[in-house]
Design goal:
The complex is a heterodimer.
Chain A (H helix, E strand, L loop, with lengths): L2 E4 L4 E4 L4 E3 L1 E4 L5 E7 L5 E7 L5 E4 L2 E4 L9 E3 L8 E8 L8 E3 L3 E6 L1
Parallel strand pairs in A: 2-12
Antiparallel strand pairs in A: 1-4, 3-9, 5-6, 5-10, 7-8, 8-9, 10-11, 10-12
Chain B lengths: L3 E4 L2 E4 L5 E7 L6 E7 L5 E8 L5 E2 L8 E7 L2 E6 L8 E8 L7 E2 L3 E5 L1
Parallel strand pairs in B: 2-11
Antiparallel strand pairs in B: 1-3, 3-8, 4-5, 4-9, 5-6, 7-8, 9-10, 9-11
The chains are: A mainly beta, B mainly beta.
Chain lengths: ~110, ~120
C-alpha cells in the first residue's frame, strides 16, 4: 500500500536557522505530494504541493522538490521564524481513481525559539 | 478562496448524548468531503469519505451506526456522534474537495469532550 514517512520530532531550532523536515513515500504509481501545516488547536492548512517529478512547490519561504528517484519530498526553509512553530504533515494523493484520499505521514512538530 | 468552515469548534457533552458537527464549503462546491479523527500528538486518521447525494464510505474499523455522516448538499456535510462516550473524545476534522481537484481544504476542527 501507499505510505508516507516523516522524520520524528520535535525539531527545535533557533530563529533564523535553516529548516529541513524529511519526507519519503511509497506508492504504486505517481502521486501528488503535499505539505500541510497545523497550528495549535486548528485544522490543517495547505502549505505547498507538487504534482509530478522535479516539480518544486513553494510558499511563504518554504520549498519542497518532488524527487522521484529518491521518492522524497523534503521540506526546507532558509530562515525560520517563531511563527513557523507548528506541526507539519507530508501527504500523498493518488488522484480521483483512488478517491482523492490523502495518506499522511505522522507529522513533525517544529518549535522555533527566539 | 476554498474556505471550509467547521462548527462547533468545541463541544462538551454528557455521556449518552448525540453531537452533530457541521462542515461547510463557503466558496466552492464540495463534491467530496472527508472526516478525520486526530488523537493528541498523532496524525490524522481517515474515518469516512462522502460524496454529495451518496452514502458515505467508511474506513475499516469505523462504526457506521456510531458516526453518522450526511452529505445532502454540495456545501454541507454533517457528522453525528451518536450516544457519545468518553472514548469518543477527540479532535474531529473535516475536509472538502471539488470535482477534478486533488486538493483537500480543511476545516478548523472540532474538539469533542464527552464527560
Amino acid at each position: 500500500g501507499n505510505s508516507v514517512t516523516q522524520m520524528e520530532g520535535p525539531v527545535t531550532l533557533s530563529e533564523e536557522a535553516f529548516l529541513t523536515i524529511n519526507c519519503t513515500y511509497t506508492a504504486t504509481g505517481y502521486p501528488s505530494l503535499f505539505w500541510y501545516v497545523q497550528y495549535p488547536g486548528e485544522g490543517l492548512q495547505l502549505l505547498l504541493k507538487a504534482t509530478k517529478a522535479d516539480d518544486k512547490g513553494s510558499n511563504k519561504g518554504f520549498e519542497a522538490t518532488y524527487r522521484k528517484e529518491t521518492t522524497s519530498f523534503h521540506l526546507e526553509k532558509g530562515s525560520v521564524q517563531v511563527s513557523d512553530s507548528a506541526v507539519y504533515f507530508c501527504a500523498l494523493n493518488m488522484g480521483p481513481n483512488a478517491g482523492n484520499m490523502l495518506t499522511f505521514g505522522g507529522g513533525t512538530r517544529l518549535m522555533v525559539k527566539p | 478562496g476554498a474556505v471550509v468552515s467547521q462548527h462547533p469548534s468545541r463541544v462538551i457533552c454528557k455521556s449518552g448524548t448525540s453531537v452533530k458537527i457541521e462542515c461547510r464549503s463557503l466558496d466552492f462546491q464540495a463534491t467530496t468531503m472527508f472526516w478525520y479523527r486526530q488523537f493528541p500528538k498523532q496524525s490524522l486518521m481517515l474515518m469516512a469519505t462522502s460524496n454529495e447525494g451518496s452514502k458515505a464510505t467508511y474506513e475499516q474499523g469505523v462504526e457506521k451506526d456510531k458516526f453518522l455522516i450526511n452529505h445532502a448538499s454540495l456545501t454541507l456535510s454533517t457528522l453525528t456522534v451518536t450516544s457519545a462516550h468518553p472514548e469518543d473524545s477527540s479532535f474531529y476534522i473535516c475536509s472538502a474537495s471539488h470535482l477534478g481537484s486533488n486538493i483537500q481544504y480543511f476545516g478548523a476542527g472540532t474538539r469533542l469532550s464527552v464527560l
